[in-house]
Amino acid sequence: MLEFDGLYKAYGSNQVLEGVGFGVAAGQMFGFCGSNGAGKTTTMRIAMGLARADAGEVRWAGRPVDEAVRRRIGYMPEERGLYPKMKVGEQLTYFARLHGMDAAPAARAAGAWAERLGLGERRDDRVEKLSLGNQQRVQLAAALVSEPDVLILDEPFSGLDPVGVDSLADALLEQCRRGVPVVFSSHQLDLVERLCDAVGILARGRIVASGSVAELRTSAAGRQLRVVAPDAAPGWAAAVPGVRVVSEQRGDAVLELAPGTDDQQVLAAALATGRVTHFAWREPTLVELFRDAVTDTREVAA
Question: φ, ψ for residue 87 (rounded to 5)?
Fold first, then answer.
């Protein structure tokens, strides 16, 4: 397991991390979410030895992460760390060698990952000649080429077209199947929701919510129903005890039910207005869960 345990970090008077902690099991994909400046990149930089925590530690398989362990981590920084004058194939081979691979296996792995991520025809091109999206693919290939034991990726999907997103998603799922723990940060919460086994939401330097998306939905305040009653007059649901109207437009209402409120009572009230064409529990999206968690944190801080 990859463990982030009680990380604190301040730059002068700016407290960036306040006790950040979470674990990623072997073969698990963990989505690390947070607003700009929340501390995601700092957390990843601490794991890679690029920043020093004021307190806390990062462990892999029960031992603190040191230089030997970092040689087995595939890391992708948010800023591109490529050599623009080097050719794609040479660069990938070089990164594989840095992680301890012999020359021949490194060259084979470089070619395989270039093909896998859609760079096969660009292996002899210098990185500076590539589009920003293809440079992103090179950086991803550099993180994967050494067959790492752990993957830590900062905004890996940024700048990729839909084909590139699908290629990377398949590659990461393949890594999970071979037992690699994968941590990636992203603002693309639809991708996080689709791919990740677990999610951590970071706000103001603290983990404010963590678990699977299903667990976060279960712990979310209130229960929501979507009711479509085309003939209903506006405001019909507000008269039902225990119901709060979240949104209502042209007979399409999202309702939040207080604990103990009977959904059948809501259905009866809807039917009394006329036709009901849709009546179902509505699961909040990760975007909504994120927004609620971050908003609650801001309100507490205020």
Answer: -75, 155
Helix (H, G, I), strand (E, B) or coil at 136: helix
Q: How far apart are CA 119 and CA 204, in angstroms?
A: 38
Kindly tell me the sign of the dihedral angle through the C-alpha atoms of 46, 51, 55, 57. Answer: positive
Residues 279/237, Cβ–Cβ less than 8 Å: no
For 237-275, how does the pLDDT look when each residue is reduced to its tens digit (9 = 90+)? 999 999 999 889 989 999 988 888 899 999 999 999 999
pLDDT bin (cut points 50, 70, 90) of residue 302 is very low
Contact predicate 61/228, CB 8 Å: no
Tell me the sheet residues that pair with 211: 199
Other C-beta atoms within 10 Å of 213: how many? 21
Structure tokens at 164: 């590139």
Nearest C-alpha neighbor of 203 from the set 109, 266, 297, 93: 297
- Distance between CA 239 and CA 245 in Å, rounded? 10
Instruction: Assess contact for 291 and 298: CB atoms under 8 A.
Output: no
* Type of residue found at 209: A
Q: Which of 10, 4, 30 is nearest to 201 (CA)?
A: 30
**pTM for the full predicted model:** 0.81
Amino acid at 137: R
